[in-house]
Amino acid sequence: MRHSGTLCDVTLHVAGTDLLAHRVVLAATSAYFNAMFSCEMLEKSLDRVSIKEVEPMALQLLIDYAYTGQIEITDENVQCLLPAASLLQMDVIREACCSFLLRQLDASNCLGIRLFAHTHSCEELQVTSHQYALNNFMKVSQEEEFLLLSFEEISSLVSSSQLNVTDEETVYGAVMRWLKHNLNEREKHFASLLSYVRLPLLSREYLLSQVMGESLIRTNSEAKDLLIEAMRYHLCPAERAAVEHNAHNARTTTRRPEGLQPVIFAIGGGSLFSTINSEFEYYCPVSDRWTYVQSSQRRSRAGLTTLNNRQKIVVIGGYNGSKELNSVETYSPLSNVWETGASMGSPRSCFGVCSLNGNQVVVAGGFDGNAVLNSSEMFDAYANVWYSYPNLEIRRKYCRLVELNQSIYAVGGFDGVNYHSSVSRFDPREGKWVRVAPMITPRSSCGATVLAGKVYVSGGNDGNSCPLSSVERYDPTMNAWESVASMQTRRSTHDLVEVNDALYAIGGNDGSSSLNSMEKYCPVVAQNSAKWTPVKAMNLRRSNLGAVVLYCQDLGSSFGRQEETMLSSAASHSTVTDTEVAMDRKSNEDISLLLPPV
Q: pLDDT tens digit string along 54-95?
């Protein structure tokens, strides 16, 4: 009837085009037309109504939808369809357009979609596209859209503590590219943007080679002050702890993206007697799944710890099958790249290691291929330099180090003759190792970690033929050890980590073979009734492995699983019908979960 003009009672005029329609049909699908034709408005009595600020194609599609209940949303029409649906108050179409754009998000268009959403007051789309830009900043900052941002728009990104980057050098480089894209107009914003870059967290080499030589800094007093602050931070390591605990100085705080999940990484180790694994694997507690990753790493008895607020792994020393190592490598899951760091002063394996203040690493004891060591070293991640550290009071290999309340505890070990139950505590503020209460049982090759303000140790060797299954914990306020539930499996040369108030004992050996099993213990929740329970085993057996917990987002994209392709095949077009309205609201929720990563 509409196409033949039968009983049509209104003509919509838009940009030189006339479209025939029935008022009752338009009013039934559009709150805008309902108000126009049912209230005392001028258009109520007009046969010909002019519609402004709407493209003819969009209005034609919306009128067709009013009659047929169907509309196809495509790349070509979504940008004119969404504002038209907003003006005509056709909320179903507006929501469908937003869902379509959500499925289209990628590094090349998320900033444009964010601006488009802001212009048309699509709050959910704006928030999601902004979060996508934060989560994928390393790719987004390389796109042409990034260089065209306004000062306010780039500020909203680089000032965010949720910016997802492997290092602060990425942020500095992005800011400088944006400035120099139109330097004459943008130089006035230099100091403001530089204040959002966390210069103290840049490496010393980068500060000296890239930042200090920047001509814009030499001519800007505010920028000079920021550089001086960063250099003082690097030149006075003893003062860093106090600076980092100053809540007012965000520039010394590592960025922490939203939506991070704890992930256990198991690296190195191998069979009990020969093979050393080069591959590593990671475990997601939420999915209860280990994922196997190819790598060139080939070490056992190495030291493993984390830096950058548990966003980067440091692998130190160890044994490669022929000799003890002093080399250091760092790994970021975000970039899936291994990088070489400064080597230790002494080669060592079977040593204790822990991180301190988030940017320092302390190693102690171990074996250098000839003798058991009592020496210690400290690595400054920002300076990429190793320093001598006060020696342990006795020689220890197969010992463990843990950090608790800014103090370091050296636990157990073996000196070549005796298995130790002794425990020493080092307070960097006091500068010396002091004995605290010994463990109940002598242990070397045990696992050790901290949970709820207490030190837990598990398994290990006490000099008898079989590894231990017993577990004990130390309360620093009482200076006392107590026994807790034993593991189900005897283990030594394993590792022990904490995730979400639970302990995980991983791999190791039981005296006859290496293990791939893992078990879990939740003392905080169950307290005295807690027991160890088996969880998903690793893919490979690993004795003398290292395990750490990182906080990560979308590991799939880092390791080659292209979830985004799942979306791209479905994103080329979208069709909405009346019968799909209810399901469309549900699918919008699913879409937001599929976006990589939101």
A: 999 999 999 989 888 899 999 999 999 999 999 999 999 999
Residue environment code for 376-396, b if the CB has 16+ CB neighbours within 10 A, otherwise e: bbbbbbbbeebeebeebebbb
**Residue 102: domain span:** 10-121+568-594
Q: How far apart are CA 203 and CA 383, in angstroms?
A: 6
Q: In DSSP terms, which residues pair with 408 in a beta bridge?
A: 403, 426
* Whether residue 500 sits in one domain with residue 416: yes
Domain contains 160: no
Query: Hey, what are 136's tokens?
Result: 């994928």
Same domain as 265, residue 247: no
Edge-to-edge strand order for the sheet containing 546-552?
289-293, 280-284, 261-267, 546-552
Same domain (yes/no): 103, 42: yes
Same domain for 288 and 332, yes or no, is yes
Amino acid of residue 466:
C
> How far from 223 is each of 149, 218, 235, CA to CA, in Å?
22, 8, 18
Instruction: Please tell me whether the overall predicted TM-score, pTM, comes out greater than 0.85 for this model.
Output: no
Local structure of 542: helix, strand or coil = coil
Question: By three-state DSSP, how is residue 11 classified?
Answer: strand
Structure tokens at 148: 């065209």
Token readout for 447 is: 């696992």
Question: Are the C-beta atoms of residues 264 and 478 closer than 8 Å to each other?
Answer: no
Whether 251 and 199 have beta carbons less than 8 Å apart is answered as yes
Instruction: Say if residue 344 is in the same domain as residue 402.
Output: yes
d(CA 567, CA 565): 5
43/35 Cα distance (integer angstroms): 10
Helices 123-135, 110-119: axis angle to 10 degrees equals 160
Which pair of tokens denotes residue 125?
A: 């789309």
| Pair 266, 506: CB distance under 8 Å | yes
Long-range contacts (CB closer than 8 Å, 24 or more residues apart) made by 136-141: 136/107, 136/110, 136/164, 136/597, 137/163, 137/164, 137/165, 137/170, 137/171, 137/174, 138/164, 138/165, 138/166, 138/170, 138/334, 138/335, 139/107, 140/107, 140/110, 140/111, 141/170, 141/173, 141/174, 141/177
**CA 227 to CA 207: how far, in whole Å?**
8
583 and 538 both lie in a single domain: no
Q: Which two tokens stand for residue 222?
A: 């505010």
417-462 confidence digits (pLDDT tens)? 999 999 999 987 788 999 999 999 999 999 999 999 999 999 999 9
